[in-house]
Amino acid sequence: MAAPAGYGKSVALSQWHKAARRRPIAWLSLDERDHDPVRMGEHFLGCLAEVDPGLGGRARSLLGSPAPGLGDEVVDALLEDFADLAADVAVVLEDVDHLDGGPVIADLTRLVMEAPPQVHYVVASRSDPTLPTHRLRANGQLLELRAEDLRFSSREAAELVRALSGHELTGDAADHLVQLTEGWPVAVQLAALSLRGTADVSAITRFGATDRGIVDYLSAELLGRLRPELRSFLLDVSVLHELDPGLCDSVTGRRDGAELLAELRQGALFVVPLGGVSGGYRLHRLVREFLRHDLAMADPDCPALLQQRAAAWCLDRDDPGQAAEYLEAARAWGLLVDLIYQHGRPLWDQGQVETVLGWVRALPRRVQGEHTRLRLTEVALHLIAGRPESSASLLAAVERDGNLTRGEQVVADVLACGLVEVANPHRDVLAREERSLAALADLAAADIPDVLEVTDPPALTCLLHFTGAKIRLLLGAAGALDDAEAAVRTPPSTAANFLVQGLGTLALMEALANRGSAPAAAHRALELAAEHLAEEHPTPIPAETALAVAARNADDLDAADAWGDAALARAVRWRRWPWVGFILGERALVELARGAPEAALSWLRRHSELGGGPLAPMVAGRFL
């Protein structure tokens, strides 16, 4: 169903929903925030769970990667669940145009194109979605409804006018209305509402053919007739995306939001039901835009104040995503910066790195430039998301601008060392490690900016040692084992993932030195990861790699295969390219131990096939 706003797509879907009660229907209404793969995935799986609580269970456990889209593992798990369904299920995806050009559209395409016969999709969009509809059309698998199908005829327009206003239109008057509005359902609805309370049915002819004419008429003939209390309420809540009684009361300072919303719903005045089972409402878009304009004209500062109240209400209910939208609309940049600082780490832990980056991008460059801590946070977020080029260029800009405090320079050095997770290191980065370790010896915690809650001195010391160990390993430089041992000796008191990293890195160095203590350290790291981290977290990569190396050392090639495959899947998923190359080299050594040089070469070729770039110096020297 593809048609512009105001063509009644949601109404038509709701009516169909009521008429199809016997068929299970999963309903997902999308918005601008669903470009984030994790958020969209959680909402998609949530609507499926309303149909069948067991549907999508395994896929839910796989969510959390910042890789573009949902990921093949999530899609494969969902398709397997769909194939096991005993009865037909319909999946409604409303406002899919919000995903066009986004990272999840390719996975949505797979879910649609590879769905078994018992799964049916109903897609509503303001424009043709970026889906291969031509293939479905050619296979006779597509039913299309467009604006011309939803446009009102003269008979339908006359019926709506009679239902909403009690007036009977002549055939000529109905034709005139349809001609002026081109059958646009929302315009016909507003025209019908304007006739309430007047005996002059000829007023219908004063409608213009443009949106502006409808808004002008709305102001003079309809909103002007509302009692002041209701009009004031509508003006204030026009800044809201959705109308929740509690949110309305918080924004307006009233206590009768539920009663006023009930009055608006009863009178069919400007309130549109949201699709699905939420039972919520929103203002009609055309009316909302008019009211917002009217509100700003009366008091230019009022909309921002109301939006900040809405943001505070959302934060009280643990919805930082919605709060960020209101703060962005209010241009409350200082409050948005504070929100990034306070909620960036929890969302990172949930895998929603793209959401936090979206908040940072919403800030004007001027504001970003005023906050070195914010700029360092953005570097860290790109690093976590596996974007070494963005991290490196942003970090270079921060250092180029100068005037960094000693604490800020330490964080910059640590982030530069952390690039070893996603990009091959340069030898000069070792000087950063040594400089930062020396600085941390006499810096107080208060002197170091808090970046995602992982930059206290013990955490930074641990991080520098285990990243230093990896840098020395990949460069073929001496001291990797010493750094790994130091990382374990100085674990931070809070971040469990740092201890997992330290133990895993130590285990890898010990395995490469063929020490028998390597498996114990690796297994301890994996135990901590299972206890404290999400299943798909990237931190266990060194421990899994260590167990692959240790198994090869012990001539247990099947175990080496298993641990190597686990580490490789995790590294590819999180785009840890230096470690993808290292693990592929280990897989090649296993094949050489089997006497299969051609198979070994095929493993090494996969690095370039995956887009990982050149191998690190140590990897190239050791394996090629």
List the helices and strands and how they pair.
Elements: H1 9-19, E1 25-29, H2 37-51, H3 57-62, H4 72-83, E2 89-94, H5 105-113, E3 119-124, H6 133-138, H7 147-150, H8 154-165, H9 171-181, H10 185-194, H11 211-222, H12 228-237, H13 245-252, H14 257-266, E4 271-273, E5 281-283, H15 285-298, H16 302-316, H17 320-330, H18 333-349, H19 353-362, H20 365-369, H21 372-384, H22 388-401, H23 406-418, H24 429-440, H25 457-475, H26 480-489, H27 496-512, H28 518-532, H29 541-553, H30 557-573, H31 577-593, H32 597-609, H33 617-623
Parallel strand pairs: 1-2, 2-3
Antiparallel strand pairs: 4-5
Average pLDDT taken over every residue: 87
| Total helical elements | 33
Q: Which strands sit side by side, in order, in the main sheet?
A: 1-2-3
Percent of residues in β-strands: under 5%
Classification by helices and strands: mainly alpha
Shape: elongated
List keywords for this structure.
624 residues; mainly alpha; three-stranded parallel beta sheet; two-stranded antiparallel sheet; 5 strands
Can you characterise this structure?
The chain is mainly alpha-helical and 624 residues long. The protein is 62% helix and 4% strand. The chain has 33 helices and five strands. The strands form two sheets. A three-stranded parallel beta sheet has the order 1-2-3. Strands 4-5 form a two-stranded antiparallel sheet. Helix 22 packs antiparallel against helix 23 and helix 25 packs parallel to helix 27. The protein starts with 8 loop residues before the first helix and ends with a helix.
